[in-house]
Fold:
Amino acid sequence: MTILYDFLFLVFSILHLPYLLIKRKWHQDFTMRFGFLGKLNLNNSNIKSIWIHAVSVGEVVVIKNLLSDIRRQYPENPIVISVVTQTGFEMAQKISNPEDHIIYAPLDFSLSVKKYIKAINPCVYINAETEIWPNLLTELKRCNIPVVQVNGRVSDQAFKGYKFFLQFIRPIFQSITFFCMQSELDADRIKFLGVAEKQVEVVGNMKFDDILDDHQKELSGLIIDENEELFVAGSTHPGEEDIVLDVFSKVQNQFKNLRLVIAPRHPERADEIVGLVEKKGFKAIRFSQVYDLIVDQKTVVVVDTIGHLRLLYRLAKVVFVGKSLTAKGGHNIIEPAYFEKPVIVGPHMENFKNITELFLRNNAIIQVENESALIIEIEKLLSDPIACEEMGMRAREVIEQYRGASEKTVNIISDVLNR
Structure:
């Protein structure tokens, strides 16, 4: 089975290579993923490391509080954080300590994962969200290394795929020691896939624990005068910037003090978005240049950096969270909600289904179907400061109610290691 899977994965990798080149995802450290870990230098090979895997920026941010808890309980163990994307790598460097080791995750070839496991020498493998790599999980089980799935979820789309390949996927899921799931639905789906009930626990969503430290600096330089208000469109995907600019064009005449900030999910798209802004008749400035140039109030700010979106949310009057209008899946609404901001999303929040339902039940978020509805809701919010404030307060109350998943998760990890 391993040989067959290696062959199939090789074929997929070859077919996937043009995409990596076109999207500029091939980088100088990509060869590390084949098992060339020359940069990995663990200080004391006699002490096993704790290996935490987080795919990209979103997952890396989620594990921040968990990392702190693990460091407090296991100060002697080296921590290795593996990621898949370059943006994830950069974010991991920001949230990690100098003594932590940040690496790219192995490609799921049997030889590569064996090299990784030997070099890292983990006492546990902690997997954020639900990313399944058959060879890696199989080899970890063969080496008697426990695997803990944290902040686990099973989306509707993934569940359909797992059910279709159930006979193949079931033994892979059974190789995972323990599942810390976000919701009862996610837990039920994992059990359906063949995992014993004693290996599954609902702990909640660690995103609710992912809050910003109060001492972090605000980006007050974006505000030109005290009457200015920011409309922040965060984590946008292709097609959504076009809609947001049209919405801004229609509401700016009524709300003279409104400034638009567009923060694309992938900052490397900044040049493309600047071109779109100018095509729509607006001036554009990259966020990295805001403090170097004097800009008028109607200039649209395009964020071309990583790690500033939360601080932008803090300054916002109203927020739209992307990948919900023209793309499916949605993005994290907890970040702006923490700052008590009124949040609007589109109809496609599949990856945050449970969270979205919680906020909707508490009237703490607005979900729209299309551009016309987005215009109406933004105009309502900007026209009614009290409604904005009350919605923001309800959003913060939801967060406070559901915090604590990180603490529960680290207790489970400790139980697994103590066994």
Remarks:
- The chain has a mean pLDDT of 87.
- The CA atoms of residues 93 and 309 lie 17 Å apart.
